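thought: fold this chain, then report.
action: predict
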Amino acid sequence: MTTTDLILSHCDTATVQLPQSMASVQKEAADFLDANKFAFAKNEVWRNVDFSDFMNDELLVPQQNAPTPQTKFTCGIPNLDTTQLTIRNGFYQTDGEPLQKLGNGVVIGSLRTAIAQCPDLVAKVFGTTTPVNNSFLAANTAMFTDGVFIYIPDNANVAKPLQILGVADHEKSIFLQTRNLVYVGKNSSLTLIHCDDSYNHNRCFSNTVTEIVIDEYARLDHYKMQNLNDNSGLINQTFVRMRQNATLLSNGISFNGGNIRNHNEIRMDGEHCDVQVHGLYLMDKEQRIDNYVFVEHSHPNCNSYELFKGIMDDNAHGSFNGHVLVCDGASKTNAQQSNKNILLTDKATINSKPFLEIYNDDVKCSHGSSIGQLDEQALFYLMQRGIRPHTARTLLMFAFCDEVLKSVGIAPLQQQLREMVQRRLQGELSSCDNCVMSCPTDNCHFTIDVSAI
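observation:
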C-alpha cells in the first residue's frame, strides 16, 4: 500500500482520540482530505511542490509500542544549555514523566499525554491558528501520532531555551506525522529551538505541523534547523497567530535534505505586532527546497520583515514564494520582503516570487528578489591579494550568509551555526550518527572575519 493509499484509507480514523471540543477539527480535516485528495495542480501555493516519489512509495508508519534503541539522543552543541524534548520516529521519548508541570505553571511534554491530562490547555491552540487549507495539513490533523506540547502561562519568562529534537532513526523506511503545539501567554517570553535530523541514511518522509499562539505583549524567538539525509523528505508547516503587541523572531536554516518544504503562515490579530522572519538554505546535488511565507496584516501599526537567502549548487532546485497581505483598515503597516539567491552552476535553479497584496493606502511596503552568481570582480580582488580561488569563493559565500546568521540571538548557537555554514560551503557537512546538529568533534580551523571582507 502506497503512502497516498494509506492516508486516504485511514483519513477518517484518528490515531489520537480528541475530546468532543476538538473532535470537530479532526472531522473537518478528514472531510477536506476526502474531497480534495492530494491534487495541488490548481493551488498556486503548492504548484512547485513535488513529493510524488514519497507518496507513491510504500512506507511504514511506526507504532507507539515499537521497541526503540536504548541510546538517548542528545544535542551536543558546546555551551548550549537547553531543555530537550525528543520526538523519535513520531513519538515523544523521555526517561521520566511524559508531561511535566513545572512550578511556575509551565507545562511541557508529550502532546498525546497533554490531550488526556489537560485538554482545556490544548484546546487553546489546536486548530485555532489556521483553517484546514491544504491536504498535508488535513492529513496531519486527522492522523497525527504525537508531538510536543508547550504551554507558557501569563507573566512567565522561561530563562532556559526549549529544544525540540525531531529524530528519524528507524531501521526501515518510514512515514511520520507529528504535531507540535506552543502557547505563550500574556507578557511571557520563550526561546524555542526546533531541530530536524536523520540519525541514519534510511528513507524517511515526515509531515510535521507546528501551531503557535503568541498572546498579548508576549515574545517568541523560534529557531529551526534542518539537516537530513538525501533520502528524506520533510514538509514542515508552521502556523502562528499573534495578538496585540506580540513579537516573533523566526530564523530557519536548511543545511541538507532530499526534499524540503518549509510552509509558514503568520497572522497578526492585534495592533503593534512585530514579525521578523529569516531563512537560509544551502542545497547541492539533486536536493530540493521550497520556502513559502504568508504574513497577514489585519490591524494597524504592525511591522513585518522577511529576509531569505539561498545558495544552490550542482543540480539543486529551490523556490521562494512570499505573500504579504495588508487588509483593509491595516493602516500604518510597515512590511519589507527580500529574497536573494546565488546559483553556482548553470544547472541549479531557483524560482522566486515575492508578492504584496495591499488594500490600504497608508502603508510602507517593499519587496525584492535577486538571482545571480558570485561577483567576478570581488573574486578577482581577493585573488589579487594572494587568496586562492576556492578560498575566495568560500569567503564571498559566507559573507552572503552572514546577514541571516547575525540574527541568531543565542551566542553558542550562532557560533555553532557559523562553523556549520563554513563546513557546508566546503562540502564537508552531512548527517552524522550522534548529533542532531552534526557538530564537529574538534574545533573548526577555517576562521572567517566577516568584518574584514
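thought: worth noting. Residues 61 and 175 are 5 Å apart (CA to CA).
final: C-alpha cells above.
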